[in-house]
Write a structure and sequence with these properties.
The structure is a homotetramer of 403-residue chains. In chain A, strand 5 and strand 6 form a beta hairpin. The radius of gyration of chain A is 22 Å and the shape is globular. Chain A is 36% helix and 12% strand. The first copy, chain A, is built from eleven helices and twelve strands. With 403 residues, chain A is α+β, with helices and mostly antiparallel strands. In chain A, the strands form four sheets. Chain A has a four-stranded mixed beta sheet. A three-stranded antiparallel beta sheet of chain A has the order 1-4-12, with helices on one face. A three-stranded antiparallel beta sheet of chain A has the order 5-6-7, with no helix packed on it. Chains A and D meet through helix 3 of A and helix 3 of D.
């Protein structure tokens, strides 16, 4: 089973296929962390980010809590105290360690967390071999949620490591500079006409989807145009050089306040944007800015300001979904849609009920996927979301305009 | 012309009718401020609120800037420095005094602001008598915007005064307790069926509307039910007594964080909610809680938590508008809709372009109107908006649920 | 009895002399407030400052609490709620209104506070006429404390009004510009030799003194020199122009952090220090900087940095007292001494025990007196004190150096 | 040469004795860090604390900067970037990494820092073998300062590790619980009479002392009494149980504000003080509170409040020094003296000028020494200092009173 198909494991798969999918996703997390020292994995660089070790432990706790405890009679947690340490935000599951203090957990050590992962992985394998047919389907559904959850944290692990390394004056790289992708060729932006009218949005069919992707429902759209690709670094640089960060006319009110309070004058991780040789800090270390590459690490505020400056706007999430642009493979794309519940929204049952529903206020939807997203993780109906001021994700934008 | 019709003054009205409408709205502001001393009018009780004097001066500056300067050749401002002091948030009109420092402006005095109002009122009258026919229509449109703007500030003046008086341990009243409305009779909540389907929302026709109310456009709605009245204080008290403020399961994530950070345990201005004799601080001073009265001074977070606890939800702004509930006359009703631009949204032209558009992020729509809203100010398409944590407005809620 | 002698009223004075002293001090407060509108008197410009109205009411409450209640049998407070509103910091006297919220008290009105003053003044007169001989001495001592207390607030009233007016972009003046003192003649600084050796410091004799001025005790001093006058604005300007605010070598560690956090680059109320025409905002409005005048509105940090730059240091409070420089009449002079208790320190008895003792940490002593100090209020042993970062007082410095 | 004598190495020692002293101090740092994982050594638990790795690197940079660069011709730093990363607060030595971000430095790794230490240690040995006689004395003086500096960081390393471990819900111990000292026998407090009079304080003689210990000078003291031992945990518990943390009468004004803002109700690291079985978190993990042991981890505010409650006071630093109590060996003892310069104070020459002088404001002197202080580090004239709110040091108190 190729990696890219893993995360869609349906419960109809035979047991060994499920186990293989599980192993593939779980080992990928370890592969991502492998180049990092225990010190790198332990530190938290800001309250919004989590230590790598925490990601590795939290996703493991998720399998213990959502799969092993409900479906494996007599299962005893590896360490009862981990429920307190590695619960992220599930109020129904009891008190938990405060998020901004995750980086203080020098114990359990990275080594102990690796052992924790191994113990839980073994238990999952035992479960898959022993669970009776009657419960297999339900257990596999819970397992599938756990795998998609782990994939989300794989991306977060990379965004959080990037932030940590960026804070170090030594500017260390996660990966060898030599492995960085080659510079691209820039192509002129083309506008793709979209007819509008009635479109059905939201997840349909049997495959896995998060609760916030449903239910599918019809919406009415006016005719519009969507750009054939995200905005490039070179284009965003023109906005900067035109004084874009200093001109309030392009900005939402909260955005302008944020720009001034934070002193923003370029996307996160850019340096020397006002010189002839701007650079960008990346997982491969600092690199000359690739002008043809999609701009990333911009907030919704910056995305909307750029769009206004360019005489365009951001698409709504339904305009994006209806047009179904080719998998972007580069950046998450900010839309102009609040992360609101779809009509008839039903949260996941049980402990996972808090997965998405309680974040349906103050968050903005991003669509697409990024270089940091695990292969096979996203769908056209996928609704990623972050607050409008967030910049440490691989977030960019695509333009839309009225017809 | 009855007061309630004033604010819809169309430019086709004869000059004297426009002048009468202008006088009616302007004098109402002074009537509201009349019971207050100069001290009461000068102080700012929190950054979100403004002094009464500032409201009186700002609305006057608005007429100077949006009407007199464009339409009255050779007009010279009463005081050139007022543009700096009394601009609220118009970046295009130059630098301005910081909002949290409005309460430091003991000069100009209340008396000088009253003279400022008089001078501008006189100039508007001169303009209405002298402007030539060709420009009258356009000038009247600008004047109409100024009147609706002033009416918005009339409501804010009351909400801000209420907050100021509530901060005083002496618990002073704006109006005599004897003038307070009599207690109501509670009626059981009834659910009104709504068919859903395609509905056209947004402002149509010739009357005045703010830019964020258009353009009108069709939306698709599922069948739903809407309550026949807002939630009452007695009903909200049951939520409190059921531990509603201490149970995270009812709350949005940001709401729960806010409840704990701010120590909320009842709506703003309530006291002794945990006793047999809860009270509410009002413009008439402290009063026993009227259980039949709509609950007010709740945030979106509290409104949504109550709705979840009650097994219902908040309506979207389109569900509200399509059902067109009878003018509520009591409280603004939180909807579950972000203050997003309508498809094809066009801001006002000129200096008023910043009126609403730049607040289309981080704000939630309220529909209806309140006891503090000037008569004739609202429409079924009216979109009021505040951040989800705001409580000092006359904000309550109405329940909806799926059919 | 001339005003300058009033505040030292000993209990041996006849009753009418005490009453005259009382009236003189009390009416001076009203004279200071007279040019201000009720709005000016109500607003609080920062947490460290208090509204004028609050000063007028607090000093009145002090007489009620420290004089009328203990010495006038059956005395009933003018308004029982004022004890909550106008207690400054006396924990032993019960809960009190929070300091940063003093500016929210639009009620009681200025007019009511003036009536409060009149009622208490009348009661004090009645007390002075009726108290029996046996208790007169003790009552007069309490009254004397109240008068010195009121004089302290007379100075604070001016410093706080200056701060309030300085925050107003209209730059209003408390007093007519024409009344401002004429520019001075600068004289070269001369060093006065001081022999050092054993010196007795602290208050002796029968006159009034605050508790922190005693007991008198001997100290040992090395020989030193003290400047014959405070540092002038022109001299301080030379420090600024030499980059003094940008060079860490002159600064205490906390001072350097404060300079950078607050963006200080000149004394408070200075403007255009980097031009040929620097100005200073004063109680007479903005004025060209008088280079010969003592520099004022500097923090201890700035005073110490200037002294280091000038190759000198600040005197200790004992060096200052032993040298007894001529009454400065211009600025309070920062010393290099913490506001620590003298050996054998005894706080005032009773409710006044909190007067000074609990502020003996984190405060630095200033000696001298200022243009804002009421005549007759200070003594050579007087210990004024403020935190090292305070700048809104009339605070300057005098240089010392080792011999 | 016994360890306890090492730190006083005078330049007259032969080269090999100096080298031995150097090795002894340097290896002690590594011994302290040895039980800690690389993760433990990398994390920073609060802005006031530093990571263990940072302490190990900073002290090494100090030798490079203060000894190798001035005295070893042609010396090239191990890594030129370390001057930026590991400078603590020396403004004259150029820009530096911000203190609160020290915990983000996952690189250089612990392993690299150990190599850094080894390289610098080798270079110091080469220097000691090669420096000519003429410069040896001066180099040895600089080296001696570096050794005393490293000893200060040895204590900080322990206090900072204790704080880090205390933040971990797993409550890990640095050292085996079995190694914890046995419970003590409590002895009744005895008062030792002190005659007062003239006393000479400050450092005299040839041995090493920090610049803030001089010059020696006479002071006048009143007769007083000093307790024969520090206040014990049991005695402090009585203060708590008498409501000491809830009664403002015992507290300095800033102390009372801090108690309420921070919610303090017991010394740092105490738990369950309101139960019959209070515990204390220590370097050996959580332990039952030893009632006979000196109380530690109290702020100056708590020390002064306890003393007031006990009808006593804290001694001044000169009262402490004149009485010369037996080496306490347990806790640093807060005095009632600000960390002010002695008359005629001269900072160290050169780059070390910033060592103590710029911290002579806002700091309070502690005398004595603690269980965490390296043997041989302290003297009767030693002036340790911290802000009055600091609690994470091994800080306790000894009572004094007037005779």
């Amino acid at each position: 089973m190729p990696y890219s198909a893993i995360a869609t494991v349906p419960s109809a798969e035979p047991r060994h296929a499920i186990a293989a999918a599980f192993d593939a996703v779980r080992s990928h997390s370890c592969t991502l962390a492998a180049p990092l020292s225990d010190e790198d994995q332990c530190v938290q660089s800001m309250p919004d980010a989590s230590p790598v070790k925490w990601h590795l432990a939290h996703t493991t706790w998720f399998f213990e809590t959502m799969v092993l405890q409900p479906f494996m009679p007599g299962y005893r947690p590896v360490d009862a105290r981990y429920a307190f340490l590695f619960n992220s935000y599930y109020e129904a599951l009891g008190p938990r360690h405060p998020r901004p203090a995750r980086g203080l957990l020098t114990r359990p050590s990275c080594q102990e967390v690796r052992q924790y992962r191994e113990a839980v992985d073994n238990a999952i394998h035992r479960l898959l071999h022993t669970v009776d047919e009657a419960m297999l389907a339900e257990a596999a559904r819970a397992l599938t949620l756990g795998l998609h959850h782990e994939q989300q944290h794989q991306e977060l692990l990379l965004t959080d490591v990037l932030h940590l390394l960026s804070q170090n004056p030594l500017q260390p790289a996660l990966r060898p500079p030599a492995d960085a992708p080659a510079a691209r060729r820039w192509t002129p932006l083309r506008w793709l006409d979209q007819p509008g009218g009635e479109a059905v949005v939201g997840h349909r069919g049997d495959g896995f989807a998060f609760d916030n992707e449903g239910p599918a429902h019809p919406v009415l759209l006016r005719p519009y145009q969507l750009a054939d690709r995200p905005v490039s670094c070179g284009e965003f640089l023109a906005f900067i050089r035109d004084g874009g960060y200093r001109n309030p006319q392009w900005w939402l009110s909260d955005g302008w306040a944020t720009v001034n309070a934070q002193g923003w004058n370029a996307p996160l991780y850019w340096a020397d944007a006002d010189t002839a040789e701007p650079t960008q800090f990346t997982l491969h270390g600092p690199r000359p800015l690739d002008l043809a590459e999609p701009v990333r690490h911009v907030s919704l505020y910056e995305a909307a300001a750029y769009a206004a400056w360019a005489g365009a706007r951001l698409p709504t999430e339904f305009e994006w979904e209806a047009a179904a642009p080719p998998a972007t493979g580069d950046v998450w794309e900010w839309t102009r849609s609040a992360h609101d519940p779809y009509p008839g929204f039903q949260p996941f049952a049980g402990a996972a009920a808090e997965y998405n529903g309680k974040f349906m206020m103050g968050q903005v939807v991003l669509r697409g996927g990024s270089v940091a997203t695990p292969p096979g993780h996203v769908r056209p109906t996928y609704r990623n979301f972050f607050p409008p001021s967030a910049r440490w994700q691989f977030s960019g934008l695509r333009l839309a305009r009225n017809l």
